[in-house]
């Protein structure tokens, strides 16, 4: 059997992605693999992801998590991914070390909310939003490995499209994913 | 015939008084380090330069080379220990590279790349360390301090000003400014002091020059630190 026939018989891997306390920059970087997206969809099907708009994660081979954990909903989503994904990957600075959202960690959450919603110029009489639909903020923003077990980490703000492509193709083809200079960077 | 020792199985010549690190660098073998600087005596605090000699861990910046030593440095075991030291440094402070002016020129970051540190691994401390922007030309961002004492040593031994000190013990250790008020503006610190230009990380920064060099042209963008350091004698 030649390689093409073998690849055609191999079931596609199922991949889910989400952005927690992130800016979707890492998802944009994933789109930055450009025409290699056509190669990627030959290899994988997407489950829950901003790309599919599926709302909940089913059983998957790979889960890609962008962003850290800043509120209660992030915790639930992250745990749903961990329950369903054989391999969970922290993608980008925020999921690896908290990143930009974690810069609030030395401030009191209540004081932060008051500053933004009550004390800012031009918002006289405003209140801190308290709709029960809104997820409660955690006192500190956490990287995802402080909440669930994480199998792989891809640092970068964001990781480049090339870095994500190298990582995913390594992982999908069964090699140990490896990013070395200059694909490994934290900024 | 010059005397030599074995460094990762390779013969390395040395002169009397040379440390393992000095001799290895002279022979083109890089040993990771943060608190060591070629112009200062060894400090031995960061432990990044640990190597194994005869099965024992030693600081290669401090131990004089001896005939016939067998030194292990670039091994999975030692590099794993170095990576763990870096991970502890990263979680103990606030090292947020994307917003740091030193990014791309930072020894801590460059070493973490070189040792393929993909995750901080431990739980973060997220300490509260306010910055000191009081000085006209210089900024102190204590969030990134790794306690190498290079600024302390440079200010005391070269500049003759004693501007900096480490104070407190254990987890309470921190960099302090030697002024009644604790503010940098109330010292005779100047932008051309050696202490203002020796910080290996992003604590002591010059104002009004941040992000002047574009990504791709910074010190460690094109080549990894093990190459740059040997080329520049660092």
TrEMBL record, chain A:
Molecular functions (GO terms): 3 iron, 4 sulfur cluster binding; oxidoreductase activity
Keywords assigned by UniProt, alphabetized: 3Fe-4S, Iron, Iron-sulfur, Metal-binding, Oxidoreductase
UniProt keyword Iron-sulfur, yes or no: yes
Entry keyword annotation includes Glycosyltransferase: no
Needed co-factor(s): [3Fe-4S] cluster
Family annotation (Pfam families): Oxidored_q6
Domain named NADH:ubiquinone oxidoreductase-like 20kDa subunit: residues: 23-170
Domain of life: Bacteria
Protein name per the record: NADP oxidoreductase
Species assigned in the record: Pseudothauera lacus
Top-level taxonomy: Bacteria, Pseudomonadati, Pseudomonadota, Betaproteobacteria, Rhodocyclales
Automatic annotation (TrEMBL), chain B:
GO biological-process terms attached to the record: ATP synthesis coupled electron transport
Cofactor: [4Fe-4S] cluster; [2Fe-2S] cluster
Location of the protein in the cell: Membrane
Gene3D superfamilies registered for this protein in UniProt: 3.10.20.740, 3.30.70.20
Pfam family, one: NADH-G_4Fe-4S_3
Domain (2Fe-2S ferredoxin-type) ranges: 1-77
GO molecular function, one term: 2 iron, 2 sulfur cluster binding
Highest taxon in the source lineage: Bacteria
One GO CC term on file: membrane
Limits of the 4Fe-4S His(Cys)3-ligated-type domain: 77-116
This protein's record includes keyword Iron-sulfur: yes
Assigned keywords, A-Z: 2Fe-2S, 4Fe-4S, Iron, Iron-sulfur, Membrane, Metal-binding, NAD, Translocase
Keyword Transmembrane set for record: no
Classification via InterPro entries: 2Fe-2S_ferredoxin-like_sf, 2Fe-2S_ferredoxin-type, NAD-red_Hydgase_HoxS_gsu, NADH_UbQ_OxRdtase_75kDa_su_CS, NADH_UbQ_OxRdtase_Gsu_4Fe4S-bd
Family that this chain belongs to: Belongs to the complex I 75 kDa subunit family.
Protein name per the record: NADP oxidoreductase
Species this chain originates from: Pseudothauera lacus
Lineage: Bacteria, Pseudomonadati, Pseudomonadota, Betaproteobacteria, Rhodocyclales
